[in-house]
UniProtKB/TrEMBL annotation:
One of its GO terms (cellular component) is cytosol. This is Phosphoglycerate kinase. GO terms for biological process: gluconeogenesis; glycolytic process. Its EC number is 2.7.2.3. ATP binds at residues 199, 298, 324-327. GO terms for molecular function: ADP binding; ATP binding; phosphoglycerate kinase activity. Keywords: ATP-binding, Cytoplasm, Glycolysis, Kinase, Nucleotide-binding, Transferase. HAMAP family: Phosphoglyc_kinase (MF_00145). It catalyses: (2R)-3-phosphoglycerate + ATP = (2R)-3-phospho-glyceroyl phosphate + ADP. The keyword Kinase applies. Monomer. Its main location: cytoplasm.
Length: 368
C-alpha cells in the first residue's frame, strides 16, 4: 500500500484529502466528540508542511447542523490548528484551486461541504469522482471509518488520481492486522453490543485465531437463543439462526454469559458471576480486542457489566485494542480511553477488517 510517506515532492502540489469528520453535534452547535477530527491532524500537518495545497473532503450526517460543515468551521480551525477555507459545492473546487492557490502562495487548507450532498458519492459514480478529482495531483485517503463503503470519494476516485493512504489508515491496518496475526496464546476477543450481523463474522474469523471469545449484549442473546435458552422479552435478532450458521456454538473457546441482570423480563446486562469469570480471563490476557458493550450501558442501572469489564481491560497488562462508537463512549465516560494501546476510528470498517473482509477503500489503495 502506498502511503503519504512515498510522496516526496509535494511542494505546490494539490492534494485531495478524504477524512472522516462525521461528528455528533450537540444542541448548542458544539462538536461533542472530537477524537476523529484530532486524529486527522498528523496527516494534514504533514501534507501542509511539505508545501501541499490541501482540499479536505468528508461526509457529515448530523441533522442539527443540516448535514453541513458550514457552522463548524471555527471549531475545526481550533481543533486542527489551521484556518480552514470553506468551499460550498464541488463545482466551486476548480475555481478555488485556480484563484486562491496560485503557485508559490502559502498553503492554507480548505474543506468542501458534505460529500453526500452529491448523489454520485454514495453511488460510487465515476463521473462524480472525475468532477471531484479535477485539478488535483494526488488523492490521499485517511478516512478508515468509510473504507468498507463503495463510495466515490473512497473507491472509484483512486482510478482518477494517484492514490495514497494517510497515517490514520496506515496505523489502523498495521494495528488491526497485528491483532489478527499475533499468536493466539493469551489473545482474547470480547464482542458485545447489537448489530450482530456485523459482529458474528468477527467471531467466526477469530475463533481459530484466539484463545477465548467472550460475548455479551445482543450478540450473546442471539447465541443463547440458538442454544435453546428461553430469552423472555430480551432483544434478539430475528434472523439469529442465519447469522450464526457455520459457527459451532458448543465450541469451548466461545463464552456466553451464565447469569444476567434482568428487568421487565429482558436481559439487560451480564450478571456478577459472568462478570468475574470474564475479569479473570482478562487479567491473564496478552492481547485483548474489544468491541461492543456488555449490556444496555446507556442506563446506569445496566452499565455495571460494561464498566467493570472496561476497568479490568484498562488495568490489564495486555496489548489493548478497542473500537465502536458505543464502546468508545462507554470507555470515555469512565475516563479510560488513554489506557488503550489503540482505539480504532472505524466501527463498521474495523469489524469488516477484523472479519477478514476486503474493504473497497483499501482495495483502491492496493492493500493486499
Ligand atoms: P458499538 O457502537 O460499540 O459497535 P453497538 O452499536 O453494536 O456497539 O451496540 C451498542 C448498543 O447495544 C447499545 O445501544 C446498547 O444499549 C445495546 N445493547 C447492549 N446489550 C444490550 C441488551 N442486552 N439489550 C438491549 N440492548 C443492548
Ligand atoms: Mg453503535
Amino acid at each position: 500500500m502506498k502511503t503519504v510517506r512515498d510522496l516526496t515532492d509535494l511542494k505546490g502540489k494539490k492534494v485531495l484529502l478524504r477524512v472522516d469528520f462525521d461528528v455528533p453535534v450537540d444542541d448548542k452547535g458544539e462538536i461533542q466528540e472530537s477524537f476523529r477530527i484530532k486524529k486527522q491532524k498528523e496527516t494534514l500537518d504533514h501534507l501542509i508542511n511539505q508545501g501541499a495545497h490541501v482540499v479536505i473532503v468528508s461526509h457529515i450526517s448530523d441533522e442539527s447542523v443540516g448535514k453541513s460543515f458550514a457552522s463548524l468551521i471555527p471549531q475545526l480551525h481550533v481543533l486542527l490548528g489551521h484556518e480552514i477555507n470553506f468551499i460550498k459545492t464541488v463545482s466551486e473546487v476548480g475555481s478555488y484551486l485556480e484563484r486562491y492557490l496560485p503557485a508559490g502562495r502559502q498553503a492554507q487548507p480548505a474543506l468542501l461541504d458534505n460529500l453526500r450532498q452529491n448523489e454520485g458519492e454514495e453511488k460510487n459514480d465515476p463521473e462524480f469522482a472525475k468532477q471531484l478529482g479535477e485539478g488535483f495531483d494526488y488523492y490521499v485517503n485517511n478516512a478508515f471509518a468509510v473504507c468498507h463503503r463503495e463510495n466515490a470519494s473512497v473507491s472509484v476516485i483512486a482510478k482518477i488520481l494517484p492514490a495514497y493512504a494517510g497515517f490514520v489508515i496506515e496505523e489502523e491496518v498495521n494495528r488491526l492486522s497485528d491483532a489478527i496475526n499475533v499468536s493466539k496464546e493469551g489473545k482474547i476477543i470480547i464482542i458485545g453490543g447489537a448489530k450482530a450481523s456485523t459482529k458474528v463474522p468477527v467471531i467466526r474469523h477469530f475463533l481459530d485465531k484466539s484463545e477465548y471469545i467472550l460475548t455479551g449484549g445482543v450478540v450473546a442473546n442471539d447465541i443463547l437463543k440458538e442454544k435453546g435458552q428461553d430469552m423472555g422479552s430480551s432483544v434478539v435478532d430475528e434472523n439469529s439462526k442465519e447469522l450464526l450458521v457455520g459457527l459451532d456454538l458448543q465450541d469451548p473457546r466461545l463464552f456466553t454469559p451464565t447469569d444476567f441482570i434482568v428487568f421487565d423480563n429482558k436481559i439487560l446486562d451480564i450478571g456478577d458471576g459472568t462478570m468475574h469469570s470474564y475479569m479473570d480471563i482478562i487479567s491473564q490476557a496478552k492481547m485483548i480486542v474489544w468491541n461492543g458493550p456488555m449490556g444496555l450501558f446507556e442506563n446506569q442501572a445496566f452499565a455495571k457489566g460494561t464498566d467493570e469489564i472496561a476497568k479490568a481491560i484498562a488495568a490489564s497488562s495486555a496489548v489493548k485494542i478497542m473500537g465502536g462508537g458505543d464502546t468508545i463512549a462507554a470507555v470515555n465516560r469512565l475516563g479510560l480511553l488513554d489506557q488503550f494501546d489503540f482505539v480504532s476510528t472505524g466501527g463498521g470498517a474495523m469489524l469488516a477488517f477484523l472479519s477478514g473482509k476486503k474493504l473497497p477503500g483499501l482495495v483502491a489503495l492496493e492493500y493486499e
